[in-house]
Design a protein that fits this description.
Blueprint: E1 2-8, E2 13-18, H1 21-29, E3 43-46, H2 55-67, E4 80-83, H3 98-116, E5 118-121, H4 124-133, E6 141-144, H5 147-155, E7 161-162
Parallel strand pairs: 5-6
Antiparallel strand pairs: 1-2, 1-3, 4-6, 4-7
């Protein structure tokens, strides 16, 4: 994997991990990448500093990877969930290494969901059931539900995805 620096038309810069230069070029041409700050898809690969592999660097990377391992799904306390009931789309942002990359990925995920899904607030479980039963329009929604409601939805075969909490801005 190689780390590349990307930038949008509004001079936001961010890093991404790709298999090689061809992979980044293909994803840029296909419009699969967007700026985690503003959502712009008008991106360019920018000049990146080389990543020199030294014993000190390797030790730091291993330590960061161990710190970035997400908790088990059962121990997550996410206040919001999403239900993708419309045409399915894979939302898999590349986390990369370190807490900064994880923070950017979670922020981008939240922005994408807010832009493309309908917020139903604390009526999430009720609305998901209506969509599942066909009494409400099929759409992508997000909102909050209790752990009990989440368990009941899962038992009824309704797949929902808890969202990780968005880290505070500093």
């Amino acid at each position: 994997m190689k780390k590349f620096l990307l930038g949008c038309e509004y001079d936001h810069e961010f890093e991404g991990w790709f298999a090689d230069a061809d992979a980044i070029r293909q994803q840029l041409q296909a419009g699969l990448l967007d700026c985690p700050y503003c959502g712009s898809t008008n991106l360019e690969k920018r000049l990146s500093s080389p990543n020199l592999s030294t014993p000190k660097t390797k030790a730091r990377i291993i330590e960061q990877q161990q710190d970035a391992v997400p908790p088990a799904a059962d121990s997550m306390s996410a206040p919001e969930s999403i239900a993708a009931t419309g045409p399915s789309a894979a939302l898999a942002p590349s986390v990369g290494e370190g807490a900064a990359a994880l923070r950017l990925a979670v922020r981008a995920l939240h922005q994408k969901i807010r832009a493309e899904f309908t917020n139903v607030g604390d009526k999430f479980a009720e609305e998901v059931r209506k969509i599942q039963e066909g009494t409400s329009e099929e759409q992508n929604i997000y909102g909050t539900c209790t752990a009990e409601e989440h368990r009941e939805l899962s038992e009824d075969g309704i797949d929902i995805l808890p969202l990780p909490e968005l880290p505070p801005e500093h």
